[in-house]
What we know:
With 373 residues, the chain is mainly β. The chain has strands at 26-31, 37-41, 46-50, 63-65, 85-91, 98-103, 108-112, 127-129, 149-154, 160-164, 169-173, 187-189, 217-222, 227-231, 236-240, 253-255, 280-285, 290-294, 299-303, 316-318, 348-353, 357-362, 367-372. It starts with 25 loop residues before the first strand and ends with a strand.
Amino acid sequence: MLGQSNLESGLANQGQSTSATGLSLPSALAMTPAGGLLVADQANNRVAFFEAIPGTSGAAASAVLGQLTAQGSSSSLTRRGLSGPFGVAVGGPVGARRMAVADSAANRVLVYAEVPVAGMPLPEPAAVIGQPDFESALTDCAANRLSFPTAVAITPLGRLIVADAVNHRVLVWNTVPVAAPIPAPDLVLGQSRPDRCVRNNNDVNGDVAGRGTLAFPVDVWSDDTRLVVADSGNHRVLIWRNFPGANLQDADLVLGHPSFTSSAPNDGGAQPTASTLRDPEGVHSDGNALVVADSLNNRVLVWRTFPDNNGQAAEVVLGHQTFNQSVSNDGNNDGGADAPTAQVFNYPMRVLLTPESLFVGDLLHNRVLRFGR
């Protein structure tokens, strides 16, 4: 566990001032090629870098991006500063690894041509997406603007995917832009064109969920073949079996509902089931299993093999004893919130699946949990 000294604590920064060992609203997670771990530490306005996966709870970060020291936490609209980063990603082909940070409150994505390496100075961003410069935080609906982007993904072939949450769209660049001028995205999902930003825009029925519409998409994953999007406002996860090639392209599968036109939390039920979702905020896969952070149900769902049916039930639930619970910290299944433990969550926001581990950004417990596989 990172961010806390023990599994029964949940205070931001361990109840103290900002340090290398504390976290405050951690969300996205990413691995570096050398086995390091990056954690988007939102409320501390930084990305924490651990040179290797820590072997003990409460380990200190090796360095931080966005702050001059590990004790800093100020928001900053500069080249090296950060303002509420929700997302971080590392990827691309060997020899051309890139890193990106969704600097959400600044309405921008920072792109790094290099990845943090142990013992080396931290890289500086090479380019900014969504803003004309590193000192702006404009928000707009346009091909060259963003509105509270919450997640980034870089695929093995080098595509950059951005969840532009408040614009209700997912943007795709076929190669990661690392220099100005930033080209227009090659693809927009959830909208028919880059200058439309309508919730559930299907060009016909307005705000009605459909096969290709989006409402506050907040996380993305892709292996260059399949694409998975956490469509939080529609309380579902959308899956494209083959990477989309057209704007507003229909998804092939939906999780959380039996059909693409349903959008109620927990599919309208009073309690969750193994097949429903409520504000899913995180998705990740190792190419076989699929993991979803089902945030407002305070749980993480696992499909041991990649789903192939609409509304398919998850096989494993973490955070609760059964699939029908939703209260945070309800370790004894009595319907009431208790203290944090090693088995419960309070708004799990992001997930990262590796060959050895599952990492969970447990947002409101201000910690990152690691589960062995």
